[in-house]
Structures are given as structure tokens and as C-alpha cells.
Amino acid sequence: MNKIEVSVLPAYIAEQSDPQNNHYVFSYTVTIRNEGSRPAKLLSRHWIITDGDGAVQEVKGDGVIGKQPYLQPGDEFRYTSGTFMNTPFGTMHGSYQMITDDGEKFEAEIPAFQLAVPNALH
């Protein structure tokens, strides 16, 4: 059985942001855990980033932070990355394409999460 659990912890990076010029920087720490019964390798990522004005940016690419982690059942991989937006809040979600040892490809969903400057959402 294939079951990849993804959790995300976002953070606002004030020191890299420039609100006067509508430049807001966020980091996010992702934990990918193989809750299934078969090993799986992360091949690629697909992010959908939506800012507070509804503008959508899609990001696709191989691996995450230059790696394609291989997860045995029970293993987890954690990494931190970042993005920027033109609004003080928005959302991200997406998926990872995974492959099992026998060549079966499947999608691991990345649940939607909010990116927000503290106190930007009332």
C-alpha cells in the first residue's frame, strides 16, 4: 500500500521582506513520511501558490532542494524551502510524484496551508 503523509509548517521571514514594495518572503518546512508498506522515491514536485489577489504561480521540478529522497516504510524526510508573494497572505498546495521499487508511480498530496504575515488576517 502506498501512503505518504505530508505536513507543512510555514513561517514569515520579516528580515527578507519589503512590505513597502509588496515583497513578502515565507519559508516552509515540509515533513514527508512514508506511512505505507512499500519503499518509495520522490521524483518531482508540483506546487500551486495563490496570493491574496488570486494570482496563481505553479512551480514544477525534479526532487526537492536538489534531492530525490528514498523513503522506506516508516522513514521521513524533512526540508525547508521558501517562496515570496506580492501580498501579505496566500496559500500553497500541491503534490509530489512518487515511484515504488517496482515502477508504480503515484501522487502524494500536499495539503493546502496558509502563508500569512502575523496579524495580516483578522
What brief labels describe this structure?
122 residues, five-stranded antiparallel β-sheet, three-stranded antiparallel β-sheet, 8 strands
Describe this structure in words.
The chain has 122 residues and is mainly beta. The chain has a single domain (4-116), classed as Immunoglobulin-like, CATH 2.60.40. The protein contains no helices and eight strands. Strands 3, 4, 5, 7 and 8 form a five-stranded antiparallel sheet that branches. The protein is elongated and about 50 Å long. It starts with a strand and ends in a 6-residue tail after the last strand. The model has no long low-confidence stretch (mean pLDDT 96).
- Mean of the pLDDT scores? 96
Order of helices and strands: EEEEEEEE
Helicity level, as a percent range?
Answer: under 10%
CATH class: Mainly Beta
Task: State the shape.
Answer: elongated
Q: Enter the CATH topology name.
A: Immunoglobulin-like
Number of DSSP strand runs: 8
Give the low-confidence spans: none
- How would you classify the quaternary structure? single chain
